[in-house]
Amino acid sequence: MSNISRVLIAVGALVLIAVYFVPVWSIYLIAPQYPEGLSMQIWLNKITGQVDIINGLNHYIGMKHITVEMFPEFTYLVYILGFFILFVLLVSITGKTRLLFAYLVLSVVGGIAALVDFYMWGYDYGHNLDSSAAIRVPGLSYQPPLIGHKKLLNFDAYSYPDTGAWIIVAVTAMLFVIWFLEWRREKKINFMKLQTSKASAVVLLFLVVFLGACTPKPEKIAYGKDSCSECKMTIVDPKFGAEIITKKGKVYKFDDTHCIAAFLEQRRIELGDIHQTLFVLYDQPGEFVSVKSVEFVVSTELKSPMGGNAAAFAGTDAAKKKSGEIEGSKTTNWATLYNILVK
Description:
Distance between the termini: 68 Å
Strand content: 15-25%
Helix content: 40-55%
Structural class: alpha+beta
Low-confidence stretches: none
Shape: elongated
Strand order of the largest sheet: 3-2-1-5-4
Order of helices and strands: HEEEHHHEEHHEEHEEEEHEH
Largest sheet: 5 strands, antiparallel
Radius of gyration: 26 Å
Number of domains: 2
């Protein structure tokens, strides 16, 4: 085995250490009342995210509360990963192609076992329901998807590998390429330089793919020029407005909360494609506030362009202060306002 391959294998082993510090899997739940979604991240030895909110929702349909204790795998996954890291380092030290192939086979078997184990947990979690739950639908189960999307009542559930899993996949793929090239090198010594350059090219390709992603960003609304994506009217009032930014970077602009609510209700965009939802600050025209922290003041005296009559503020304190200046007004969050607007 060439020195370059052995160095790359050693680097791969060190990269695997990062899996200890990042989530391995993510589950997302999206519904009209939660346009930004609820998320849960599964690590090697813990669970993070909006688990308490998810548990609160699941309680009504009889699903178990998600806790660390329900995953016995957390007690030994860190050691399994340590074994794999040491195995890769052993391959790098010995330089044996057969040992690298044995590692790849073991990785595939381990990956399949992990998916089967996750499926079995999901099956039990979605089928073993509390018979005394407030909401019961005979014959209906709530097993989350293994990978991909699944509709569960009014929620869109998504289950995908997270950073840790992609690191494992990337390192394993790199090791597979190295093994393949070294196998060919042993068969055709005369092509050693060509095979080494291919291995370097593949590694560079992985670096480009994983480091070259761009984060979608909002756009300033050009008042008097931009049109509302829902009602097609020109956006003119700088105190009102909203934007939806997709994961691919496309920006939808709106002149009123009424329009963005109608846009979401009619599913003109899949909720799972939404990267960010923003509202124009009433007291800071042209500036945005995220749907996660926005608080609205609702009053007919506000006279917004399309009759939503809701002004966005950055937090509860600012909204209550403005509400105190308008007789008969009230404050509310986006989930409540959305349900009012789409009735």
